[in-house]
Amino acid sequence: MYRMSILAPFIILPLTVIGGSMILTTPLNIPYAEAQGQSTSLATPDPSLAINVTIGDLIVEGPATSIGFRVLDLGTPNTGPKIEASFIGNATIRGGINATDMGTLRTIINSDGTSYSEGKGILTSVATGEIATYTFQAIGQYGSDGKLRNHGSVFFNSNTTSSGQLSFLNNMVGVFADEIDAAGNSMTRVWELR
What we know:
Layout: E1 16-18, E2 21-26, E3 33-35, E4 38-40, E5 51-73, E6 82-93, E7 97-109, E8 114-125, E9 131-142, E10 148-158, E11 173-180, E12 185-193
Antiparallel strand pairs: 1-2, 2-5, 3-4, 5-6, 5-12, 6-7, 7-8, 8-9, 9-10, 10-11, 11-12
């Protein structure tokens, strides 16, 4: 028989705004699990240790429009349909670099109005033609106004030289929020995660 007992689920602490940055300090709690009669316990670290996360500067923002949809799966009574969408838009990177933004995402829409999305995209500098790529995951919720609002994480990669215009995006992690209307028009903002 398999049993799992979680003694300390999740602890959420408030975000503190310091100098324009948000800092989340969360002590690390590790669950205790019992499996098939064997106890497995992971040591709890020193309570004075903390994991710090800072949401930094706005690094990418811009509008986009969905340019094509495809139904990948109709789903089951327990899972909603899976849809693929492609998008194209304009992005402003670090407040001054103009770029095009294009990508594809896959979304599972649940019967409770929530959604899970994952996708990938390419940012191309208008001035230099340099490219940065990204992947992302998001959880969303449809509002009473029919708009889908997502929150998620994004992982950047840049193949430009260290002096390139988009080189700072290489291996950068960000968090984002977006809003998509029923016509497929969206606005996205991405902040650096430090």
